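Quick question about two entries, pasted in order.
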Amino acid sequence: MAGFKALLATRTDQGQTVDWVELTEDDLMAGNVTIKVTHTTLNYKDGLAVAGKAPIFRRWPMIPGIDLAGVVEASRCRDYKPGDKVLVNGWRLGETHYGGYAEKARVEDGWLVPVPKQFNCSDAMAIGTAGYTAMLCVLALEENDVKPGDGPVLVTGASGGVGSVAIALLSKLGFEVIASTGRTEEEDYLKYLGAAGVVDRGELSGEPSMLGKERWGGAIDTVGSSTLANVLSQMKYNGAVAACGLAQGTDLPASVMPFILRGVTLQGVESVLAPKQRRLDAWKRLAKDLDIGKLRAMAVAHPLEDVLELAPKIVAGKVRGRVVFNVG
């Protein structure tokens, strides 16, 4: 049986090790669809896992990579046949089930989403979990009745993957987008994506007040901690915040005042186990509302072997936009 290359994380008495190995299909985990992986990507969570900065892996050994895209090689279900282009986001890939940092994967058909015809597999991974999560955040704002006329929408962690895609989506939908970043040298990049203005993250990372000046009609937060608390305190009446990240921390030193005096909504956004229909809706909207030129401009292609170098960089906030790994 022909082998294939994979990045395998193992645990020893000395801690985590990550090495390139050769496996066969007999080594793959259970599933009814086998995929030749052509592309994957690097999310913040992947960086934490590969760099050993957080306990992402829930079993050992594990192939990292929470996203993958490629071509069906074998299928035991009626919905997918060999040659179909498919993608997977989440479903505990790279945590409890072998993930995308390998030339082959075997998964359950219920985890698969067809690659929209507007995208190729590289585009699908330029979006990846980060961009798919950004779309879920936009849907959350819409479902909380946030409209372009309600005032500026703030995006924190703006130069990262979620932030970059969120800016491109919101600007195309007619919102005035304000980008918050600690990398103000990226202002031209953020304005190219559609930001109307850029604020330094220092304005939002200090000790929050219980209730600040009303500034934002809506917000997408990837940072958490005191940044999210500050954002909440500055929301306009009936504004909504879609929260999906914790780059600054898991705490939330906030007051109830924005909620009980201004009717602010804090909407959590979860992408890993989102229902299939929610995923299909999100990818349908991405195909409709994401400018493909901007998507490709925010993505940088690398061979998969570069993941070991890039993982600590994304954790340190030194990766702009999206990384696409060519596999094989």
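Here is the second entry:
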Amino acid sequence: MPDGRDAVAIKVVKSLAEVPPEAWDACAGTDNPFVSHAFLSALEDSGSAAAETGWLGQHLVIEDPAGGIAACAPLYLKNHSYGEYVFDWGWADAYERAGGRYYPKLQCSVPFTPVTGPRLLVNAALPADQRREMRAALIAGMAQLAQNLGVSSLHVTFPTEDEWEAFGQAGYLQRIGQQFHWENKGFATFDAFLDELSSRKRKNIKKERRCVHEAGLDIRVLEGADITEAHWDAFFRFYMDTSDKKWGQAYLDRRFFSLLGERLGRAVVLVVVEKDGRPVAGALNLRGGDTLYGRNWGCVADYRFLHFEACYYQAIDYAIAHGLKWVEAGAQGPHKVQRGYLPRRTYSAHWIADPGFRDAVRHFLEDEARGIQREMSAYGRFSPFKKHS
């Protein structure tokens, strides 16, 4: 193992299939399911994140002297900006109008997944000083690979705050964003959560839940092996229907969902909604160490407030019942505030090769950060929770 004087050798692998699952997961840990070998390999093996779809694996791996893995990072060479949720379309357009070539670029992220989590995966068994060394090596290795490939830029999206700070110290540009998350403050029941809301917001949520109940819908929460291929068939129909209506592009294929259920087991939590025994909607979640992560939703019928019930309120019910601290219900959505989901910062870091373009992006990020901070402050003033003196 390097002791601070030796060079660190970093290997680039194009597929998670080249990395033993147990070795990758020794670095990824168990708190965040999205950086697990199971989730990332399901994306690759299903063809959802592959060279053919514009996600060519360039994963970084640092081996230890025994042939295990000391550190690793999910990294992709991309020829587009789809499936990232930290938008750089304007950057790409500006750079290409100025005569530059924005694509390909490097992307350190979990494809199609706007979830904060570790990106610099280091074996927790290493001493603290070696863990810091491994993180620094991965950060430097990404930039070196970007230079070797001659790409315009490298983007690290949804890292943890401490990783974001480390990238900033290494000279990467820093960007902030926001999402809306629900925090479990020790609530024993959903009603206990409602008791903390203002009267008007509490009545509104009760009305929405009552409306769904009166529609005669049967809602069940399934986990792990209780989710059958028939459930995945139905959910894929919902997913495709919603993609067609809202986004026009489905990133995930049918096989991905089967592999997800097979490889992640009880970390998969599926809300199934039926009407007269027929599936009509569903919401897919993954469970981490202290968080329930809402991922995909779909519905083939129109029921008032069902989206809120299946995606937000069922998730809160589940978190309370299982003692989870947080519910993260996906990207965007200021409408979540009145339902108890408050703003939290998200992060990204960016390496830009062209000095002039880098300077322009830096000025943009400074202005953007001030705007986001103002937005978060404004949302805070509209919190649905009671004001305690």
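Reply: The chain has two domains: 10-178+345-380, 185-324. The radius of gyration is 22 Å. Hope that helps.
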